[in-house]
Amino acid sequence: MIGIMSALQSLFDQAQELTLQTGTALFRRNDQVRRMFFNRTGAINLERPLADGTALTLHTAVEGMLIAEASLFADAYHCDALATVPTVVARLPRERFIKLLAEMPEASLSIIKAQASEVQSQRARIEILRLRRVAERLNAWLELNGVPIKGEWKRIADKIGVSPPALYREIARRKRV
Question: Which CATH number does the domain housing residue 87 bear?
Answer without folding.
Answer: 2.60.120.10
